[in-house]
Amino acid sequence: MKSYTDQIGNTINLNHSPKRIISLVPSQTELLFDLGLEDKIVGITKFCVHPYHFKSTKKIIGGTKKVHYEKIRILAPDIIIANKEENTQEIVEELQSIAPVWTSDVKTIEDNKAMIAEFGKIFDCRTEAQNLNNKTAFALADFKRFIASKKERRTAYFIWKNPYMVAGDDNFINEMLKLNKFVNIYQSKGRYPEVDITKIRSEDPDLIFLSSEPYPFKEEDAFEIGKFTHHTKTVFVDGEMFSWYGSRILKALEYFKKLHNRLDS
């Protein structure tokens, strides 16, 4: 039997490398696929949209905040992959009575690297995990050379409406903003603070990002927020590129280059 400690400090014990995996996190489902574990994944959430064909080949066990425990029990998983932010503590504790639950807590690039390496050990795919971490390190080094000459831009990253909410500090979105030299004007206000858009002009942002998820912002939202800004550029951005960790970071770095080129044009 082998023991593994997850990213919130819980220890799980496994008699063998898991052959039946349930993933409760969209970005981690994508990662498991990219590590070559498709045949071992038996259950996913309705929000696990990558790869696309999983929605017809894998069992949907609910969402990230509400799962169907009996469906999970019937699937007889060897392991369940959860996330501290995406899934509630209540869900994790309930699922521990069904199978070992490994919970991630990814706020930084280093956290992401550690998670990938740990998946390599747990699922006996060390070579694939190391290759992915190597590719990511190379791509990050290349991106840092690209970004070196870019100026800092004061930025607000909106994630929700009614009430309006933004990304603050201590989350992966803010890590991606920092990587891009987008200075988060709300990073001292908590993790996901509510904001009064009528006061945004006093914060003097250079950019306002309206994310595609979890709330799908539209043109009318940009117009409404824009009424309270002063010469601030509003940009619709792909939320997956800023908030999904795992293997998605490789696609995100290419997306960020295109985003900067668009902002500079």
Describe the fold and architecture:
This protein has 265 residues and is α/β, with parallel strands linked by helices. The mean pLDDT is 97. A five-stranded parallel β-sheet has the order 5-4-3-6-7, with helices on both faces. The chain has two domains: 2-105, Rossmann fold (3-Layer(aba) Sandwich), CATH 3.40.50; 150-264, 3-Layer(aba) Sandwich (Rossmann fold). It is globular and about 60 Å long. Helix 4 (89-95) links the parallel strand 6 (79-83) and strand 7. It contains ten helices and twelve strands. Helix 6 packs parallel to helix 10 (248-264).
Nutshell version of this structure?
This protein has 265 residues and is an alpha/beta fold. The protein has helices at residues 26-34, 54-57, 69-75, 89-95, 109-122, 126-147, 172-179, 219-226, 239-243, 248-264, and strands at 2-5, 11-14, 21-23, 41-44, 59-60, 79-83, 101-104, 153-160, 165-166, 182-184, 207-211, 233-237. The longest helix is centred in the middle third of the chain and has 22 residues, at 126-147.
- With strands numbered from the N-terminus, the spatial order across the biggest sheet is 5-4-3-6-7
Shape: globular
Instruction: State the assembly state of the protein chains.
Output: single chain
Please mark out the parts with pLDDT under 50 across 5 or more consecutive residues, or reply none.
none
Radius of gyration: 19 Å
For the biggest sheet, the summary is: 5 strands, parallel
